């Protein structure tokens, strides 16, 4: 059965949109257990606002975790989210320290960096995601009286469409160096759409621009099975591995090199080790995930 098609859409409770709620729930758990790595006070209220019961209870620390198989997968996932959140936070903070004042969060989902990072004055942050996702987050945070810490511009558009036009329409200036992130996004795009996205980012990036991207490896159906059964019992029926596009795709670093970017690639196992979580890393079903930090020369 085909689970995705070229013009599919979603909100935060369905299909790819639900993965944004899933990762925000993991950020809420990580924020409670290890603030050293993540401190995202917006994650739990955003997850509660979406209203997927099993994610609300996990985010709130109310989930029964007596089943070992479920607990292990969730712990690996929280570990991944903790170190990846820190990786992308540091990427933006380093870019800001280097003087970059324009940022773009591709596929922002429930990412609250525009509300929680200490952006230098004069920074504009553009957040791109599907219109229902973007509208929900904006309305929910406004309802909480949350104040962005930068000049935040939501750009509600599908990344398979002409998003550069929408971005320019929101005030993006390609002549200024930009810090871009693609966190939790690329495997949800077909391989040719990933190439196109990197082409478009390159075309919009002046010298000195930076890009951080993640290519995550979703756990196998076998690893996910106990968790999926529980989710399904509790009325939530999304299988994350059905939502990604499998098959060969270009390596991000090699592809970007052809477009004038220099890249440092960091495997997830390195990030886990660097953050003192190495003991659980070897068995992690996400261990093949990679992180790319690139600078446009
Ligand atoms: C796993 S979530 C990651 C969200 C966010 N980057 C984070 O880490 O919290 C995947 C996100 O990608 C977005 N996404 C996937 N494909 C997209 C597309 N074609 N256009 C716009 N957004 C897309 C989804 O709406 C969702 O918010």
TrEMBL record:
Keywords: Methyltransferase, S-adenosyl-L-methionine, Transferase. InterPro entries: Ppm1/Ppm2/Tcmp, SAM-dependent_MTases_sf, SAM_mthyl_Trfase_ML2640-like. One of its GO terms (biological process) is methylation. It comes from the Bacteria. SUPFAM superfamilies: S-adenosyl-L-methionine-dependent methyltransferases (SSF53335). Its EC number is 2.1.1.-. GO terms for molecular function: methyltransferase activity. Pfam families: LCM. The keyword Methyltransferase applies. Belongs to the UPF0677 family. Exhibits S-adenosyl-L-methionine-dependent methyltransferase activity. This is S-adenosyl-L-methionine-dependent methyltransferase. It comes from Mycobacterium helveticum.
